[in-house]
Amino acid sequence: MNTYKKISTRVLSLMVLFIMTANLTQAQEFNLANGESTLTILGTSSLHDWHIDAENQSGKISFKNLEAGQIEKVTIDIVAESLKSGKSSMDKNTYKALKTNNHKNISFQLAEVKNVVSKGNGAFSVTATGYLTIAGTKKLIPLDFTINTTKASVKLIGEKKIKMTDFNVDPPKAMFGTITTGNDITIKFSTIFK
Predict the structure, then answer these.
(1) CA 113 – CA 158 distance, rounded (Å)
(2) Which domains does the chain have, with CATH numbers?
(3) Which residues touch 130 (CB under 8 Å, ≥6 apart)?
(4) Are strands 105-120 and 123-134 parallel, antiparallel or unpaired?
(5) Neighbours of 27 (CB within 10 A)
(6) 109 φ/ψ angles, rounded to the nearest 5 degrees
(7) Are 154 and 30 spatial neighbours (Cβ–Cβ below 8 Å)?
(8) Each residue of 7-31: pLDDT tens digit?
(9) Distance (Å, rounded) from C-alpha 103 to C-alpha 95?
(10) pLDDT per residue over 134-191, tens digit each?
(11) Which residues of 32-42 are buried (b: 16+ CB within 10 A; e: fewer)?
């Protein structure tokens, strides 16, 4: 009887250890690698097409199960005044339109993963919704993206078309209003988490 108890206790201990280890290996969190990530905003104007790059991003992605591509959480913050076009006058107009005096960050927070399709070799196609906050206006948006996963890193790739006015942003103007910016912009991102 005593031997039976010892064996039962050992089996129970091993099962608890196995469950805890399985949970630790499945739930994983990665931090955004700013120097390796890119986010570019593309737009048009009455003069020429333009683009602006984010130089300062931070964030996290975590998974319920990395091998199955089951995302639990994604948060991304961009310092609004780290958006750079290479032209200081354009940057000033951008910051004015984004009201950066009061709204320092642009942020995205995952709300719900609707569908995940495995493409093989750690690649997944994801359909989701999330909260995008620009210039203090927060909106729930649909977002499709792909993820490529390894044990050490996650790459999130996609693009999203939005209208500036949907976020109460007046498209910037320059040269006393003679140059006007189009309302439609495309956000392209290749975000690396490690």
Answers:
(1) 15
(2) 27-193 (2.40.128.110)
(3) 74, 108, 109, 110, 111, 140, 141, 143
(4) antiparallel
(5) 14
(6) -135, 125
(7) yes
(8) 666 655 555 445 444 444 446 999 9
(9) 10
(10) 999 999 999 999 999 998 999 999 999 999 999 999 987 766 666 788 999 999 999 9
(11) bbbeebebebe
Radius of gyration of the chain measured on its C-alpha atoms: 22
Q: Measured between alpha carbons, how far is 173 from 90 in angstroms, rounded to an integer?
A: 9
Structure tokens at 181: 């910016």
d(CA 104, CA 76): 13
Question: Considering only CA atoms, which of 166, 114, 113 is closest in space to residue 138?
Answer: 166
Query: b/e map of 117-140 (b: 16 or more CB within 10 Å)?
Result: eeeeebebebebebebbbbeeeee
